[in-house]
Design a protein that fits this description.
heterotrimer; A mainly alpha; B alpha+beta; C mainly alpha; B: alpha+beta; 7-stranded mixed beta sheet; 6-stranded mixed beta sheet; 17 helices; 30% helix; 20% strand; C: mainly alpha; MetI-like fold; 12 helices; elongated
């Protein structure tokens, strides 16, 4: 088992390497002289072309892309992620304060997705084809189909401005940094929107998994043995149905991260998602690389964790037995 | 089930850790403490009696604190809190008041100024402020004049300033009489020198902290980057936290020489999207906002807790041409643009009257004998065919974040196309726009928005740089003569003569098409009182911030 | 051997045909899928054919119509530049459908080609393709798209090409899996003995087998692509004006005065996107249920 996960982690590094290489190559292929992105236009207008060439050489921008990528990688390993061309600040400093806000948003969203998606999925499965099942299906599909930003905007105005029950934007109220309730109130809307949108696929998957389990042989056997419905449900069906759901949770992380980009933009939540949109708008290559690196690593890590969780929960899974 | 609970447990743990971001404040490295105390909001039901003023100015901001760096009106507001200038102005943006200079004498020909500095002024780190700091600031400013990236300071007007450029020689026109008296002699008489001094590019910076700073390394020192404890001024507020592109926290300076400020803390919030600022004004999470989109005026005016002001704005939205390139080099083509665009329509229908049609660069009077270029598509077509315009595409670039860009640009493009001019709109992000503007690449014309500080025609000279390598590239030697002539006399009538002729020249040659001037909407909570008043040039509003009160 | 192989092929072919008919029948019973199909067909018909019949100009500005609510001359009102919302809705839908189907068609081609390369050549080529597939599937697609768009610049072609360049992995996986299982199938060995070339096998047996699952993947892909275009245009990284886009129309709602005061500007595009994606999702559901022999859905 250990060997399997060691291999997974190594593969994850390789994949991360691949992603960053692709991203770096693409960013380097941007039209225009890369020197212009690194030099101040005022300075540039005063430099002779020999000086510009020298600067280009100093910055290593005249070398082939693989070598430049190697330098970038070497820098990263030493902890230097480069500088933002817009603010001039180190990337780590730009990204640092945004990590926890994004993390707390995602965590809240996961909790919402689980709390809403799981029970409703189970409910749908138990009452399959009943009225509640159709209703929930309809709501689910509605949530999946409506763009997140539309839901976010409407929520912002109904709950934030018109009804004034929840604060609008920001992380916390000034003066109340340590007030957990205050922070939760600020987290509520963005987290709920992100969570609900991802609760929908979770609900569908749970329902499908549950339905399959409920019609399986051992459940029928248990019922035939005379066990009460609820006992059957909880002790046998639930545990087995939830196993594949855990892997789905792992796959949900990329969707959550993508959704966070939109949610953070709509609610002005100062996280990595909002940062990546700024970086794209500003065409800031170092910042984009930093975001790809961190987000890529986080997503890969979560899929490994999900696999690990899966293996612990399901005794039938043993990864080290070949196939 | 176990694993399911564990996942939830882990998620909750992360959530709580995230919530405790502020609580677990690690040993203060400036950026993390900035992160912890920045980015604040308000309580849902609207704050009642907090001691914090939350402000936003809905225009672009840059993240630097040394006047040599590129700045915009946002930074000027910050500078006015943290630093001082020699003199300030009142809310009419004209009447002078004292600041670091308690009194001053002006020679009759307006070329020698003697400043008597205020006493008891201390830098925020405790060091005393003396004439040396003023000498240092002015000398450094003249020595490194061409390093100034944004608004330019006045220091190059001092006698001998050209000679000290790029040297470390002292400035001849600057004389220290004693520790609290300084005399400045100008290269050429300038009756507007004192008003120009109020511009925040002329804030006085501490010699004891910056004496080893050069133009090459100024961008990297903590003072410039905005670190609490390093960014020190003499002003009413100290910088206590700064998160770039997000927020700025200022705390009252109890030793301020004009008296301790009454509002303990000010938070400047930076919004990427003005809509959120508007929402926060409504919900009570924002107390003061400048340059709110005019389309929100009606809704906000209806709210009971806000004062909403719609002020005429000397700043103008205009199209600047690349005048050296055909066919835009033919002034008939440029005049055609004027006739083609229904500027009155934009003002009446889009802005619902909360804007004005102006035909001059910022600050000029609308003289009666100027051509109004009233909307006339036929005349436009006529001019185009006279000039031999044969369908070349006009690449019009603009910063896509400029307010109302998405709604107004289609109107402009449609009008021009109706007159037969082929227009390609090039919306750009701020960084690329700035780059193209500086390098003069990628456009035949660009949209400029600004000049709201121009309450006199004098300030518009900056839009016509003499080297012809910036802005429109239009350089008519006569216009510089006229501007200098206006400056050299304190006689208002003579000044007006010069400006009148200037206006006529620009009106006919059309290096820029002046489209319209949108009103500026400022919103403040009714709890803000005391000396608070929005200045005519709203960037200067914080010049008397120490007198404001907040219930 | 030959006769057994022949029969096996015939049985396979016969089973296959009735399976198709069964699938179609199951699909037709899926009420929501039928509704979805009708909605999609209706929207597509309007988007594609209406501009040919009626004069609609999504970019014509009109000072007199600025912010006009629905009424004569403008059935859905006009936006802040006096442009007709209905016209923009129709053209915007065109763009959404164009991006949706265009990007998916493109990545179906790319994905199938790559899947076949991986499946046929095996070895290093296979490893390379599979690693690339895994890599792309590991990262949230929106983030990668943002990076690409930052480089190539926003625009209609950029959006289509970028979505296609990043969306092929599920197709490749499907095609490759089918190819691999096909190689194992006995009748293939049999047919090869008879002398039918590799390509012949592929064309005759692979394609019909993957057609079903591919349609499902493609359908959900179309929904995803439509949402991606809307999101990108909302973020300002998508289609560039003056090309109308439903996402960009909704962007106007970020201004409070538009959200509350001009609902006709953003609600219609919001509804249309939701309807389109809904419809396509229903169709996808129907297809998936129809093609899944283990489906427990009651007819």
């Amino acid at each position: 088992m250990g060997a399997y996960f060691l291999r997974r982690i190594l593969i994850a590094f390789v994949v991360l390497f691949g992603i960053t290489l692709i991203a770096y190559t693409v960013l380097s292929l941007a039209p225009g002289d890369p020197v212009l992105a690194r030099l101040d236009p005022e300075q540039l207008s005063r430099m002779t072309s020999a000086q510009v060439d020298q600067r280009r050489h100093e910055l290593g921008l005249d070398q082939p892309i693989p070598i430049r990528y190697y330098h970038w990688l070497a820098d990263v390993v030493q902890g230097n992620l480069g500088f933002s061309i817009v603010s001039g600040r180190p990337i780590a400093e730009e990204m640092g304060p945004r990590l926890l806000p994004s993390l707390s948003l995602l965590s809240f969203a996961v909790i919402v997705a689980l709390v809403v998606g799981l029970p409703l999925g189970i409910l749908s499965a138990v009452h399959q084809y009943g009225r509640s099942d159709y209703l929930l299906s309809a709501i689910t599909i509605f949530l999946i189909s409506t763009p997140t930003f539309v839901l976010g905007l409407v929520a912002l105005y109904v709950f934030g401005v018109t009804l004034r029950v929840l604060p609008v934007g920001d992380l916390y109220t000034f003066g109340k940094e340590r007030d957990i309730l205050d922070r939760l109130a600020h987290l509520a809307m963005p987290g709920a929107i992100l969570g609900l949108v991802n609760a929908a696929p979770l609900m569908r998957y749970t329902r499908a998994s549950m339905v399959e389990v409920l019609s399986s042989d051992y459940v029928t056997t248990a019922r035939a043995k005379g066990l009460a419905g609820r006992v059957v449900l909880v002790r046998h069906a639930l545990r087995n149905a939830l196993i594949p759901v855990i892997t789905v949770l792992g796959y949900l992380v990329p969707d959550l991260v993508a959704g966070a980009v939109i949610t953070e933009t709509v609610f002005n939540w100062p996280g990595l998602g909002q940062l990546s949109v700024h970086a794209a708008n500003d065409r800031d290559p170092a910042l984009l690389m930093g975001v790809i690196l961190i987000v890529g690593a986080a997503v890969l890590l979560s899929s490994i964790v999900a696999d690990f969780a899966y293996s612990v929960v399901d005794p039938r899974i043993r990864y080290d037995q070949g196939r | 089930m176990r694993m399911h609970r564990s996942i939830v447990g882990a998620a909750v743990a992360v959530l709580i850790v995230g919530a405790c971001q502020g609580a677990s404040s690690p040993a203060a490295s400036p950026s993390s403490s900035a992160a912890a105390s920045a980015s604040a909001g308000g309580s849902p039901a609207g704050s009642a009696g907090t001691a914090v003023l939350r402000v936003a100015r809905l225009a672009d901001a840059y993240n630097f604190f040394h006047p040599v760096e590129f700045q915009t009106g946002n930074q000027f507001q910050w500078y006015n809190c943290i630093f001082d200038t020699l003199v300030k102005v009142q809310d009419d943006s004209k009447t002078l008041t004292d600041d670091l200079a308690k009194t001053w004498d002006v020679s009759p020909d307006a070329s020698v100024y003697t400043f008597h500095l205020a006493s008891g002024v201390k830098w925020q780190d405790g060091q005393p402020f003396t004439a040396d700091d003023l000498i240092y600031t002015a000398t450094w400013g003249a020595q490194n004049y061409d390093a100034y990236k944004g608004f330019l300071p006045v220091w190059n007007q001092l006698k001998g300033a050209a000679g000290v450029l790029h040297t470390s020689k002292p400035l001849p026109g600057l004389k220290k009489i004693d520790d609290s008296t300084v005399e400045m002699t100008l290269e050429a008489p300038n009756s507007l020198f004192l008003v120009q001094l109020t511009d925040a590019a002329n804030v006085i910076v501490p010699q004891h902290l910056l004496k080893d700073v050069t133009a090459a390394n100024v961008e990297k020192v903590d003072f410039t980057l905005g670190k609490p404890g390093a960014t020190i001024g003499t002003g009413p507020y100290k910088l206590t936290a700064f998160t770039p592109d997000q927020s700025l926290e200022l705390t009252a300076n109890p030793d301020y020489f004009k008296g301790a400020p009454k509002i303990p803390k000010i938070i400047f919030k930076i919004f990427a999207d003005p809509s959120l600022a508007v929402a926060q004004l409504e919900s009570g999470d924002l107390d003061l906002a400048f340059r709110v989109p005019p389309s929100e005026f009606d809704r906000l005016s209806a709210l009971p807790n806000l004062n909403v002001l719609s002020a005429a704005n000397p700043g103008i939205v205009r199209i600047v041409f690349r005048t050296e390139e055909a066919p835009w080099s033919d002034k008939r083509v440029r005049q055609a643009f004027y006739y083609a665009i229904n500027r009155q329509g934009i003002v009446d229908q889009y802005y619902k009257g909360r804007a004005k049609v102006l035909i001059n660069p910022p600050g000029f009077k609308e003289y009666d004998d100027l051509d109004k270029y009233a909307f006339n598509v036929d005349k436009a077509k006529q001019l185009l065919s006279d000039a031999g315009y044969s369908g070349q595409t006009f690449k019009l670039m603009y910063d896509q974040t400029f307010p109302d860009a998405a709604q107004v640009m289609p109107l402009i493009q449609a009008d021009l196309q109706n007159a037969g001019i082929k227009v390609e709109l090039v919306p750009l992000d701020t960084a690329t726009y700035g780059k193209n503007y500086g390098s003069r690449q990628g456009w035949d014309g660009f949209i400029a928005v600004g000049g709201s500080e121009a309450l006199t025609p004098n300030k518009s000279e900056q839009y016509f740089p003499k080297d012809g390598k910036h802005e429109s590239g239009y350089t008519n030697p006569r216009i510089y003569e006229l501007w200098a002539a206006a400056r050299s006399t304190p006689d208002a009538a003579k000044q007006d003569e010069s400006y009148h002729e200037l206006a006529k020249i620009l009106n006919e040659d059309v290096p820029q098409v002046n489209l319209y001037s949108p009103n500026l909407v400022m919103v403040s909570t009714k709890r803000l009182d005391g000396g608070f008043k929005v200045h005519l040039n709203e960037r200067e509003t914080f010049m008397n911030v120490e007198t404001w009160t907040l219930q | 051997m030959t006769s057994v192989g022949d029969t096996a092929v015939q049985v396979a072919v016969a089973e296959h045909e009735s399976l198709t008919r069964q699938a179609i029948r199951r699909f037709l019973r899926h009420r929501l899928a039928i509704i979805g199909l009708l909605v999609l067909a209706f929207v597509a018909a309007v988007a594609v054919f209406l501009p040919l019949a009626v004069r609609l100009d999504p970019t014509a500005t009109d000072y007199g119509a600025i912010r006009q609510p629905p009424g004569p001359g403008h059935p859905l009102g006009a936006d802040q530049s006096g442009r007709d919302v209905w016209a923009r809705l129709v053209y915007g839908s065109r763009i959404s459908l164009l991006v949706g189907f265009g990007a998916v068609a493109l990545y179906l081609a790319i994905g199938t080609a790559l899947g076949m390369i991986a499946g046929f050549l095996g070895g290093f080529a296979d490893q390379l393709v599979m690693r690339a597939t895994d890599t792309l599937l590991s990262i949230p697609i929106l983030l990668l798209i943002i990076v690409f768009i930052a480089v190539v610049g926003p625009g209609l072609t950029s959006v289509i090409v970028v979505i296609a360049l990043l969306g092929w992995p599920p197709t490749t996986r499907l095609v490759r899996a089918q190819l691999l299982s096909l190689r194992e199938a006995e009748f293939v060995t049999a047919v090869r003995v008879v002398g039918v070339g590799n390509l012949g096998i592929v064309l005759r047996h692979l394609l019909p087998n993957i057609f079903g699952p591919l349609t499902v993947v493609a359908t959900f892909g179309v929904a995803q692509a439509i949402l991606l275009e809307a999101s990108l245009s909302f973020l300002g990284l998508g289609v560039r004006p003056p090309v109308p886009s439903l996402g960009e129309m909704i962007n106007a709602a970020r201004a409070p005065s538009t959200l509350q005061g001009l609902p006709w500007v953003w609600l219609p595009p919001g509804i249309v996107i939701a309807l389109l994606v809904l419809a396509v999702n229903f169709i996808g559901d129907g297809l998936r249920d129809a093609l899944d022999p283990r489906s427990t859905r009651r007819a």
